[in-house]
């Protein structure tokens, strides 16, 4: 296991080995215990497809119960001194069952996270994503929705409550765009309808990212980043990408 004094160059070579494995047909071979952190050299070698592969493999480990054993304290100390070079950005819901770093089995310094009820975007989140991609080098943006989403249920029921009212209004277009499911019941009592709305909300948020950010749209068009949607099943932890 690398020590705290391990050169950054060596840490980069270890990380790159994991990146190569991420795109292979066989599961990656990883250390049982690791304080390896993402470095600038390693991040620059990652393509958007590789970044997506790393996230998918991480979720497979999470679902299978084979999480990597990380020395988080060492990762904090190393990244604190060397800087952060996350390879991915995730827009997630604040739901306590969906922490991105956990469900994607990533360590300190691996991903940026913007969490808000209903995984919607506004100017502040778009600005954060622009920083993450254009300035800090993140290669993929994932809009992560999930099953049994309380914010989506609130939108289905047209809930009015303080500042939540304005947030719910941003999910309402997804409710309107979703056709009836199983019955004419379009409330939170119809679980199947709620799930369809949650998926529609993810698709519309992905579209909003590209439409409302010329910076991210240009990067995506040039193949510098990917912007994708995904759904997390809170009962299994499994993430399905759109």
Characterization of this structure:
- It is a single chain.
- Helices cover about 50% and strands about 15% of the residues.
- It has 10 helices and 7 strands.
- Helix 5 links the parallel strand 3 (about 90) and strand 4.
- Helix 8 crosses helix 9 (about 190-210).
- The protein is globular and about 55 Å long.
Provide key terms for this protein:
single chain; alpha/beta; globular
Neighbour order of strands in the largest sheet:
4-3-5-6-7
Stretches where pLDDT is under 50 for at least 5 consecutive residues are 1-14, 25-33
Main pleated-sheet profile: 5 strands, mixed
DSSP summary, beta strand count: 7
Number of DSSP helices? 10
Radius of gyration: 19 Å
Gist of the model:
With 242 residues, the chain is of the alpha/beta class. The chain has a single domain (8-241), classed as Beta-carbonic Anhydrase, Chain A, CATH 3.40.1050.
Please render the helix and strand layout as text.
Elements: H1 8-22, E1 33-34, H2 40-45, H3 48-64, E2 69-70, H4 72-82, E3 88-92, H5 100-103, E4 111-115, H6 123-135, E5 140-146, H7 150-156, H8 164-177, H9 191-212, H10 214-221, E6 226-232, E7 239-241
Parallel strand pairs: 1-2, 3-4, 3-5, 5-6
Antiparallel strand pairs: 6-7
